[in-house]
Design a protein that fits this description.
six-stranded mixed sheet, 182 residues, elongated, alpha+beta
């Protein structure tokens, strides 16, 4: 049983130490690098790319947004929280990321007609909606840094492994909203 723990710790460049003291017992110490973090993440997909969003920033997921309308150049969602009626600006995750990328990825007609979910995110200025093509679920995952060869944008925490060994970028959605709106 401890072989599995040791091999997992070593795969993270960590270690397991066993210390036995007669009449006091055995102490097992696990050491993993500080560069790794475990967090509860919502994994979603848009334009074939997997992203993970920290659950602590998420208010709710609206799977079938009936009250999504176009107001000027923005999409808005009429959402009810208790007795309160809120109008929430909705942006596509693909658009948010491509707005800050050097070469935006165009959205094809087939992708724009795909049924989408809206993830309601708490920000400093209130709730914002993030439209994704597919919500894959909530998972507790290890976030790994991207490394030093690539300088990630400030809104990328790192990456994690989801599903069948696919990588997902872990997005700090609040920072992403701040950068796009500034």
């Amino acid at each position: 049983g401890l072989d599995v723990v040791r091999s997992q710790a070593e795969s993270f460049k960590g270690s397991v130490a066993v210390n036995f003291v007669p009449q006091q017992g055995t102490t097992f110490s696990l050491q993993i690098p500080l560069s790794l973090t475990i967090a509860k993440l919502l994994v979603c997909k848009t334009q074939g790319i997997s992203y993970a969003l920290p659950v602590d920033a998420i208010e709710q997921i609206v799977s079938k947004p009936d009250s999504l309308t176009q107001v000027g150049t923005q999409q808005v969602l009429q959402w009810r929280r208790g007795d309160e009626e809120l109008t929430i600006v909705v942006r596509s995750l693909a658009d948010l990321v491509s707005d800050l990328a050097a070469s935006p990825t165009p959205v094809t007609a087939a992708e724009s007609s795909t049924p989408r979910s809206i993830v309601l995110v708490r920000t400093d200025t209130g709730l914002m909606g993030v439209q994704v093509e597919q919500v894959l679920g909530e998972q507790e995952l290890v976030i790994r840094p991207l490394g030093r060869a690539i300088a990630p944008p400030p809104y990328v925490y790192g990456c994690c492994i989801v599903g069948s060994n696919q990588l997902a970028l872990v997005i700090d959605i609040r920072t992403l909203f701040q950068q796009v709106t500034n």
